[in-house]
Structure formats: structure tokens, C-alpha cells
From TrEMBL:
GO molecular function, one term: tRNA (adenine(9)-N1)-methyltransferase activity
Coiled-coil annotated residue ranges, if any: 136-163
E.C. designation(s): 2.1.1.218, 2.1.1.221
The organism's taxonomic lineage, starting at the top: Eukaryota, Metazoa, Chordata, Craniata, Vertebrata
PROSITE patterns reported for this sequence: SAM_MT_TRM10
Localization (cell): Mitochondrion
PANTHER family reported for this sequence: TRNA (GUANINE-9-) METHYLTRANSFERASE, TRNA METHYLTRANSFERASE 10 HOMOLOG C
Gene symbol of the encoding locus: Trmt10c
Name the UniProt record assigns to this protein: tRNA methyltransferase 10 homolog C
Enzyme class at the top of the EC tree: transferase
GO cellular component, one term: nucleoplasm
Catalytic reactions on record: guanosine(9) in tRNA + S-adenosyl-L-methionine = N(1)-methylguanosine(9) in tRNA + S-adenosyl-L-homocysteine + H(+); adenosine(9) in tRNA + S-adenosyl-L-methionine = N(1)-methyladenosine(9) in tRNA + S-adenosyl-L-homocysteine + H(+); an adenosine in mRNA + S-adenosyl-L-methionine = an N(1)-methyladenosine in mRNA + S-adenosyl-L-homocysteine + H(+)
Annotated SAM-dependent MTase TRM10-type domain residues: 180-372
Organism name: Ptilonorhynchus violaceus (Satin bowerbird)
Protein's GO biological process: methylation; mitochondrial tRNA 5'-end processing; positive regulation of mitochondrial translation
Keywords: Coiled coil, Methyltransferase, Mitochondrion, S-adenosyl-L-methionine, Transferase, Transit peptide, tRNA processing
């Protein structure tokens, strides 16, 4: 029996182990050989009958089945790799054909691509991945631009800080502030009053009130820097109102130091009615010249929906004189409403006060609202437009051409 065990070990070492070493299965076969030898020994101990023999055919079948399983496991990996490579080749062909294919695609995405049931589903999935990649690139580009703008803003702030640190610029700004404050203080005694009507809080939303306050802040700064500033009055101004809170947000500690007059009284109680003129775009009366003896009132209202007639109705209830700027007289109006912002009104009134020139004053009107200044009288322009319209229609064309040739030159 010992000789049989030795023979079995020689067979395993000579035939099976070299084959297993070539296929990387040597470690798994050692326990199997030991198990076979032990099983034979046990059989010898339990049964001493010489008729029992080792079933080598069954053992060969077991060994062949184990080898086939191991080989199938090793072969399955290259098949998966080959399918992924084929999927990448398909996507590369689609890209060359001009289809929308993502530049970077993972193995999981390739597997899901190959698992799609139909060709249309594969196309939709690849298009989805392509759009997803584009969105990511767009977000990254926006983040980079935002970072660049932030860095540029930081550089500008640092440069401004460096310039502010210089003694000459600090001295210049301090002296100019003192000069502006001196002019504003003089205007409170000798200047012409200009009233802002602060009674339109109920007609506006919170956002519109914030826009109104922003425009008034710009108006106050423009007035303070002018040569001959107005004495600004805030009438109908109530504490703890939306106006008050927005002004405190902008001015903070400087709100109590502004050189303006703030009162909760109406302008009719502060000034005589015969000197008050309410400036509104809805007024039928057109302002011809700037009167230095009058007190002009500007409605502190910004409305997105353009509520017509609100300021005109308020002025009529109080029995005040109204006036509108002569925009149609000097400007060829094209589009938009004839309502101007508060800071534009302030610049126009300051220019009229200093120069009395309507063309210089109306240059502050936004250029998108008009085509240019009127060179001829408005009546002549209307006549020429009527003649052109009749020529287009064709009614009495010969007669109109004769009239047009008599009244106007060929040019």
C-alpha cells in the first residue's frame, strides 16, 4: 500500500503539477493531492480487502471539471475588456461622424451604454452624458470667470487703498469735502429751495421705495457737488417709514449730519402756495423758462407700471400750479415714457439754474428715448410728415408733390 501512495504522488508531481503551474493553479491542487492521499490511507485502514481499487477515471473527471471552471473564470475577464473596447470604438466612430459624444466616459457608463436595449436608447443615453458634460464645463467656466472678477476687484481695492494712503490725495479729498459742505451750508441759508414730496409710500412696493431712495441719494450727491446747489427739503417725511429705513441703510451715521431740511409737514404749510410749482409729466402746461423765484416740487416716486395722473391729481387737490418739461419741443421723441428718474431731474434743474440752456439741460435725458434735437419748428415738421404720409398712401399724389416742391427744396 505504501508503494501505491508513492506511485500516486509521482503521478501528481509528474503530470498534474506542471500543468497546474502553467495555468496558475498550483496552490489549489496541493490540498487536493493531500486529500486524495489521506482518503486512500483511510480506505486502507478501514478496509483491508485487496479487491478494492482506486477509481482513476472518476478522479480525472473531477480534475478536468475544476480546470475548466478555472479557465472559464480567467477567460471571462478578457471578454468584458473586449466589449468595453468595442464600445469605445463605436463612440469614437460616432464622434467622427459628427454626433454629440462626451469626451470623457467611465467604465460604468460604458457598461450601461452596452446594456441599453436599443440603438435609440444608446443614442439618448450618450446625448444625456454629452449635455451633462457641457453643463459641467459651463459651470466651471462661470466659476473661473467669477474667481477672476473677484481677484480683479481685490486688486482694484488694493490699488485704491494704496492711493488713499497717499497724503496728497487724502488732503485733497478732505478739502473738497469741506468745500462741498460749505456750499451746502450756504444753500441752506441763501439757496433756492427744492422740495421732494415723500408722500408716495403707499403707492409703491418695497422694491420701488428702495429704488426711489437710491435715486434721491444720487440727486443729493449731485446737488452737493454743484456750484450753486439747491436747499433740499424732504416734506411729508415720517419717522420709522420705509423711506426712513432705506435712508439709514445708505447714509448710516451720516444721516443725521446731512445739510438738508427734513420735516413731516406738507410743503403747503412751509411755503406760500403762489410760489409752488409741481413738476409732473402729466401736466398740460409746459415749462418754458426756469424761474429762480419759484419753488419746484418733485414727486419722490418710482413706478414700474407707470401710474399716470397720481402726482397731477395730488397737485390739483392742493390747488398748486403744475408744469412739465418741454421734451417734445426740443427732442425728437422715439420710444418709452416721458418719465425721468429723480437724479436726471436734479441734473436738468441744476443745469437750467446755472445756464438757462434747454439743450444742455436735456442732454441728461437717456439717448435711447429720443432720436435727436429738433432744429426746425414742430409745426413745419408735422407738415412734412403729413405730406410724406400722403405720398405713401397715394391720395392726390401729383398735387402733394407740387406743394412739397414749392415749400421744400430738393435736398
Amino acid at each position: 500500500m505504501q508503494s501505491a501512495n508513492m506511485l500516486l504522488k509521482k503521478i501528481v508531481r509528474s503530470s498534474v503539477l506542471p500543468f497546474a503551474a502553467q495555468h496558475g493553479m498550483k496552490k489549489d491542487l496541493f490540498p487536493l493531492s493531500r486529500a486524495l492521499s489521506l482518503s486512500l490511507c483511510l480506505k486502507q485502514d478501514n478496509s483491508c480487502k485487496p479487491s478494492e481499487k482506486l477509481d482513476l477515471d472518476a478522479w480525472k473527471k473531477v480534475m478536468k471539471s475544476g480546470l475548466q471552471e478555472e479557465v472559464s473564470e480567467t477567460v471571462s475577464e478578457p471578454k468584458e475588456l473586449s466589449t468595453l473596447a468595442a464600445a469605445r470604438e463605436i463612440l469614437e466612430m460616432w464622434r467622427l461622424a459628427g454626433r454629440s459624444v462626451p469626451e470623457n466616459i467611465s467604465e460604468e457608463q460604458l457598461k450601461t451604454f452596452m446594456e441599453c436595449p436599443s440603438k435609440s436608447a444608446k443614442k439618448k443615453y450618450i446625448k444625456y452624458l454629452h449635455l451633462k458634460e457641457l453643463y459641467k464645463k459651463n459651470d466651471k467656466r462661470k466659476m473661473d470667470e467669477k474667481r477672476e472678477r473677484r481677484l480683479e476687484a481685490q486688486d482694484q481695492v488694493s490699488k485704491m487703498d494704496e492711493t488713499k494712503k497717499s497724503s496728497f490725495i487724502c488732503l485733497w479729498s478732505n478739502t473738497m469735502d469741506k468745500a462741498y459742505n460749505w456750499r451746502a451750508a450756504q444753500s441752506m441759508i441763501f439757496g433756492q429751495p427744492l422740495v421732494f414730496d415723500m408722500s408716495y409710500e403707499k403707492e409703491m412696493s418695497v422694491r420701488e421705495v428702495a429704488n426711489t431712495v437710491r435715486q434721491i441719494v444720487l440727486s443729493e450727491g449731485c446737488n452737493r457737488r454743484s456750484v450753486d446747489p439747491f436747499h433740499i427739503h424732504f416734506c411729508n417725511f415720517k419717522d420709522d417709514s420705509l423711506y426712513h429705513r432705506e435712508f439709514v441703510k445708505y447714509y448710516r451715521e451720516a444721516w443725521g449730519k446731512l445739510l438738508i431740511t427734513v420735516t413731516d409737514q406738507c410743503y403747503t404749510e412751509v411755503f406760500p402756495k403762489d410760489k409752488l410749482i409741481y413738476l409732473t409729466a402729466d401736466s398740460p402746461k409746459v415749462m418754458k423758462t426756469f424761474d429762480h423765484d419759484k419753488i419746484y416740487i418733485v414727486g419722490s416716486m418710482v413706478d414700474k407700471s407707470i401710474k399716470t395722473g397720481v402726482s397731477l391729481a395730488r397737485a390739483k387737490r392742493l390747488g398748486l400750479e403744475t408744469a412739465a418739461l418741454p421734451l417734445e419741443k426740443y427732442l425728437l421723441w422715439s420710444t418709452g415714457a416721458k418719465n425721468l428718474t429723480l437724479d436726471q431731474m436734479m441734473r436738468i434743474l441744476l443745469t437750467l439754474k446755472d445756464t438757462a440752456d434747454w439743450k444742455k439741460a436735456l442732454e441728461f435725458v437717456p439717448k435711447r428715448k429720443y432720436c435727436g434735437f429738433v432744429n426746425k419748428p414742430v409745426k413745419e415738421l408735422k407738415k412734412s410728415l403729413d405730406l410724406i404720409n400722403t405720398l405713401k398712401i397715394g391720395k392726390g399724389r401729383e398735387e402733394v408733390q407740387k406743394l412739397f416742391g414749392k415749400n421744400y427744396s430738393k435736398k
